[in-house]
């Protein structure tokens, strides 16, 4: 005798945009099966179907066991129907273990309710898991009309993907559903939906204030899905500036150390900054190692996502990414790419942006000298950035000659002044970086002079040879008058450098005076005032130069006298002292100072002779005339 059958219908509501959507769930279930599912209860780590008919199937999903009836599942799940179920060891029907079941026990619980005709809920939080689980169990239309695959697919297509927030929710839920969500194109469809909505609104509106309304939501995605979304947004033709802003916000969200400022000796002190201490402490623990790997993956992915256009992200952000990339030991190829991109926009950087910590891993540290390990700043990184800038400038020289060299020269001089405070910075690194810029890049060497003076002040034990070598970098003819005045009184500079400074400035002043021609009568007073000022400056420089020469001559005389005295003391010390005393006594005696009458007569005659001679010459001239 055939059992009676009834049609069960129930609706599932989901509100994504504020509207109610009702979907009919229909299934033909034998009337006796309805009596099976009186309730569904959980006891400890197990779920039980309460009914008058004994259960005959035990299914394990992860660490949860479900005690159910075989028929409701076999009638809807092709996967279970194809299996040869093994009898239970306890002679309790059959048992089954579902390995790698997508969605876990939570998804399987909802599927059981669907199979038994119990109330169940379909929403953006579980739709992806139920879609993957129904595919796993092969719940297709072949076994029953309106089976779970068709219901979840319809809800995903017509409800979720039409709503921005529901799409974001579903995409985030796919993080634990790999590879099912990928194979079923759920991730791709969500990313395309997000990209379409973001690019459509950005192209339709002229209001730049609202152009980033979607940044916050996209920044909540894990890096894999964020990468897929950004690539889809790029493919839609979104402006690189907008894409760059989204990437910057994502980096700020997932890389907390990116906003740590490193200001050398003025900031976090000598050695390492807060971010470095954090990394070092993390690496001592297993959780810290895992976290570091995740951060490294995020950093490398973000660098790969950056749009190639220079206007996409500012130079400041590129340098922030470069710092964290070095700290987390990112791929050397990506670090080189960042250095090159920074070099292309170096004129937009600031000194603090270039304060890159000299962080080395343990393996790298073993290959370095102790002095290099203790160096605070990664000077070689800045040097490579400068080289990329100079290569780019050389390529653009025909179009934009000297376009950014003046800004970069001032930037590098300020950077040199900062790193000069590092007592472990070797003179070679300082000199190589200072000489990297071509001679025509600096219109004034005041900044370079300040950097050299700071280095000399920080390294007082520097040899005279190294001091001279360091000062040769500077062009004395490019120093301002204030710098010349300071250099003339700077005892840290070699004396030869001081003389060169004064001499070159004097030559420059003379050349400036010779180059000035008389202007119109209306400008005579202004010209005279300028010439007076120039003469005063020249006289000041001459005086300083004479003082320096006098000091050198005095030092030379003192040295000669000391050397002469030293020889006299060693050779004839006693005789010299006796002779000196006798000579002083002779000069004090009355005999030495006495004058004879003959001497006085001769002196009087000598005083009267010029006058007589002169009068005689006059008389001779008168007689001739």
Characterise this structure.
The protein is α/β, with parallel strands linked by helices and 625 residues long. Helices cover 59% and strands 7% of the residues. The chain contains 28 helices and eight strands. The protein has helices spanning 31-34, 70-74, 78-82, 104-116, 127-136, 148-160, 164-173, 180-183, 186-204, 215-218, 223-235, 240-254, 274-282, 286-305, 315-327, 332-344, 362-366, 370-373, 379-395, 405-419, 427-434, 446-458, 464-471, 481-488, 495-515, 524-588, 590-593, 597-624, and strands at 5-11, 24-30, 39-43, 46-50, 57-61, 64-68, 86-87, 94-98. The chain has a six-stranded mixed beta sheet with strand order 3-4-6-5-8-7, with helices on one face. α7 (164-173) packs antiparallel against α9 (186-204). The radius of gyration is 46 Å and the shape is elongated. Residues 1-35, 266-283, 363-371, 517-526 and 590-625 have low confidence and may be disordered.
């Amino acid at each position: 005798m055939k059992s009676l059958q009834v049609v069960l219908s129930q609706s599932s509501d989901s509100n994504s945009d504020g509207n109610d959507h009702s979907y009919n769930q229909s299934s033909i279930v034998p009337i006796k099966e309805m009596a099976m599912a009186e309730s569904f209860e959980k006891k400890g780590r197990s779920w039980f179907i309460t009914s008058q008919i004994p259960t005959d199937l035990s299914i394990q999903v992860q660490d949860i066991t479900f005690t159910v009836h075989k028929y409701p599942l076999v009638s809807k799940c092709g996967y279970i129907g194809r299996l040869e179920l093994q009898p239970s060891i306890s002679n309790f029907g059959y048992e089954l273990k579902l390995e790698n079941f997508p969605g876990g026990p939570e998804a399987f619980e909802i599927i059981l309710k669907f199979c038994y005709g119990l109330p169940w809920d379909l929403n953006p939080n579980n739709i992806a898991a139920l879609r993957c689980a129904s595919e796993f169990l092969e719940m297709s239309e072949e076994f029953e009309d309106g089976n779970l695959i068709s219901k979840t697919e319809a809800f995903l297509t017509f409800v979720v993907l039409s709503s921005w927030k529901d799409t974001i929710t579903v995409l985030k839920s796919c993080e634990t559903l790999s590879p099912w969500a990928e194979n079923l194109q759920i991730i791709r469809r969500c990313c395309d939906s997000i990209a379409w909505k973001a690019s459509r609104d950005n192209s339709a509106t002229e209001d730049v204030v609202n152009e980033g309304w979607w940044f916050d939501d996209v920044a909540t995605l894990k890096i894999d899905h964020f990468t897929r979304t950004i690539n889809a947004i790029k493919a839609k033709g979104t402006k690189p500036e907008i894409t760059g802003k989204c990437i910057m916000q994502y980096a700020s969200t997932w890389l907390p150390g990116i906003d740590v400022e490193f200001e050398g000796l003025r900031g976090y002190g000598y050695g390492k900054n807060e971010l470095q201490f954090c990394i070092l402490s993390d690496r001592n623990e297993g959780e810290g190692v895992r976290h570091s790997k995740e951060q490294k993956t995020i950093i490398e992915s973000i660098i790969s996502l950056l749009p190639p256009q220079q206007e996409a992200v500012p130079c400041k952000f590129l340098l922030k990414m470069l710092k964290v990339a070095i700290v987390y030991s990112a791929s050397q190829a990506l670090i080189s790419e960042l250095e090159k991109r920074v070099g292309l926009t170096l004129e937009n950087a600031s000194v603090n942006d270039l304060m890159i910590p000299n962080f080395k891993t343990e393996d790298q540290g073993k290959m370095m000298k102790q002095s290099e390990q203790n160096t605070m700043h990664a000077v070689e990184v800045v040097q490579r950035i400068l080289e990329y800038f100079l290569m780019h400038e050389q390529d653009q020289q025909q179009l934009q000659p000297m376009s950014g060299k003046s800004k970069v020269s001032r930037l590098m001089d300020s950077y040199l002044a900062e790193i000069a405070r590092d007592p472990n910075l070797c003179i070679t690194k300082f000199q190589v970086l200072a000489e990297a810029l071509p001679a025509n890049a600096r219109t004034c060497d005041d900044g370079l002079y300040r950097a050299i003076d700071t280095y000399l002040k920080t390294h007082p034990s520097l040899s005279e040879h190294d001091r001279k070598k360091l000062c040769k970098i500077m062009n004395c003819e490019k120093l301002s008058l204030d710098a010349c005045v300071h250099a003339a009184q700077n005892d840290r500079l070699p004396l030869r450098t001081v003389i060169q400074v004064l001499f070159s400035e004097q030559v420059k002043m003379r050349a400036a005076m010779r180059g000035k021609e008389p202007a119109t009568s209306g400008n005579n007073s202004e010209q005279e005032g300028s010439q007076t000022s120039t003469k005063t400056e020249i006289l000041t420089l001459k005086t300083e130069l004479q003082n320096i020469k006098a000091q050198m001559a005095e030092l030379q005389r003192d040295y000669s006298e000391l050397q002469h005295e030293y020889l006299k003391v060693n050779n004839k010390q006693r005789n010299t002292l006796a002779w000196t005393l006798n000579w002083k006594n002779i000069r004090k005696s009355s005999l030495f100072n006495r004058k004879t009458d003959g001497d006085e007569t001769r002196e009087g005659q000598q005083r009267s002779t010029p006058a007589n001679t002169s009068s005689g010459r006059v008389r001779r001239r008168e007689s001739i005339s």
